[in-house]
Amino acid sequence: MTVSELLRGISQCACGRSHTCPIHDVVIGAGVLSELPRLTEGYRHILLVADENTYAVAGGEVRTLLGMRVADELLYHTEPGQVLVPNEKAIAQMKARVTSETDLILGVGSGVINDLCKHVSFVSGLPYYIVATAPSMDGYASVGAALILDGMKVTLSAAVPRAIIADTNVLCAAPAEMIAAGYGDIIGKYSCLSDWKLANLLFDEYLCPTVLDATYEAVEKTVRLTDGLASRSPETIGALMEALVAVGILMAYVGNSRPASGSEHHLSHYFEIVGIVRHEPYLPHGVDVFHSAVETARLREQLANMEAPVPAPRLLDRAAYEREITRIYGSVAPEVLALQERLGWYTDEAVTRRHAAYCEKWDEVRRLLANGPTADELLDLLTRAGLRHDDFIALYGEEKIADARFFAKDLKDRYTVLWLYDDLLGRTRQK
After folding, report:
1. Would 264 disulfide with which of 153, 177, 188, 362, CB 3.0-4.6 Å?
2. In a 10 Å sphere around its CB, with 0-12 CB exposed, 13-18 middle and 19+ buried, how is residue 66 labelled?
3. Tell me: the pLDDT tens digits for 173-197?
4. How does pLDDT run across 116-137, given as a tens digit for each residue?
5. Is residue 373 within 8 Å of residue 297, measured between CB atoms?
6. Distance from C-alpha of 194 to C-alpha of 322, rounded to nearest angstrom
7. What DSSP assignment string belongs to 194-229?
8. What structural domains does the chain harbor?
9. Average model confidence (pLDDT) across the chain
10. Which pTM was predicted?
11. Among 191, 178, 91, 88, which Cα is nearest to 416's?
12. C-alpha span between 314 and 357 (Å, rounded)
């Protein structure tokens, strides 16, 4: 389905629900920045939000196009070698610039700028537009704002932008790593869609076949772009941006990030949070997602090769678990432990219920896990996109990656293959 088709919504879907998307305009193409004056007609007190880099590549032109209708500018600054973090400080900075006269928040940027604008516009009751500066992630059109609050990676409900403006003249000039990140964010859907089907199979979680098929369609279209990414042609970059926006709309259709985020995102969030806590480097989100999808594919292959689940539920050794969480997450360990305590997924009753579901449906589980690209096939795509998995392993090390396989899931409240892996093979489990 094209972006234009998705914007029209589906009134009577086969899943029994209706799907709508309140985005008014999505314009992708060469020179579309020139449409901003028309698209923002009627707004007279615009807050323009950017960082130093995004202002240089597009923010200045946006300011010129809109003239006096830009009532204020917020330009985020970061120290050399640092990245903008969507935390309480950054949120407060933007809230302080919203006045009683502000009628539109206009972000110029990609992931972090988009999430900050999305959140502040939502809590302020204001519309927002986003001018994309890189085809780096699928959150432009999503309903969630990915933030880091109290040191934890959280996704808060928010509104979609009224308009997405993606000028391929700007996108094609984005750093190669950001283009690879957007590509990787889409390829990671192989992993999260498997997780969605697994949760549906085992626990009857809601799944929309139309959204599932449309997401796979976006992924397959993106796979066909692989060998053209290096060319940075407007056609290739525009098609990648279309896929990223389409997936965002599909998330809006179901009201959550299931079509786009699963175990591969949980690993990515783990590397980011642990990196922030320990002051260690981490890769751009979509690049981490790409590498993490390779790792989750390996887990699926390992599990699919098991003739049967372990014969009895492996219950939690709480003392060992708390030691591991404290070792790994440091200062944010209390928040991680509190989340899992609230969910109750480690209780003996919950573990026993999951184990019963595994035993009942193991043949179907194995078929599902085996139905998708192998780790080697994903590695081939990764290499063709200009990335090296060895760099991922060298940056994080085997120990951190091994920890992620068992404990990245604890950052979230979503069932994925990581729970299956831990239930059957977890280090802090006992029979």
Report:
1. 188
2. middle
3. 999 999 999 999 999 999 999 999 9
4. 999 999 999 999 999 999 999 9
5. yes
6. 29
7. HHHHHHHHHH-----HHHHHHHHHHHHHHHTTGGGG
8. 1-261 (3.40.50.1970), 262-431 (no CATH)
9. 95
10. 0.91
11. 191
12. 14
